[in-house]
Amino acid sequence: xxxxxxxxxxxxxxxxxxxxxxxxxxxxxxxxxxxxxxxxxxxxxxxxxxxxxxxxxxxxxxxxxxxxxxxxxxxxxxxxxxxxxxxxxxxxxxxxxxxxxxxxxxxxxxxxxxxxxxxxxxxxxxxxxxxxxxxxxxxxxxxxxxxxxxxxxxxxxxxxxxxxxxxxxxxxxxxxxxxxx
Length: 181
Known about the structure:
By secondary structure, this protein is of the alpha/beta class. The chain has helices at residues 3-12, 14-26, 31-51, 59-62, 120-125, 151-167; strands at residues 75-78, 83-88, 110-115, 137-141, 171-174, 179-180. It has a single domain (46-180), classed as 2-Layer Sandwich (Nucleotidyltransferase, domain 5).
């Protein structure tokens, strides 16, 4: 072995060991961050348990809906800084006589809430079972008048929203495009 090879080997040999030692110390977790993750998982588990009371989605029923106006399940519009949740509560009077008339308007049973993305699981699990006639499926859409500068943020929020819903066992459906996300 030449002197040059020996020097090169003596310099390069400790590098993998340094990488291991440095790598072990660079991945220390902040206790607050880890605690927040544990709390978030616990919230999701609670939300999942509550949502299991709602039947699985009926694909034949929800895919037949082609307009947002005729959608009866909860729906979400993903905004740059929030989510807009719309829920139509079930009619307290099951009789079809007078449904949707001046005495029992559908609009009176509709609620709109603005929620933050991190509160999605809490908000969705609080929706009553009677507001899910198609089963566990939510219409998710982007707003129609999003400024060009806000489109990247809306797309990121849309991806996070769909992932959260899927983690909760809810199907995300785009009524306008007829796409299950």
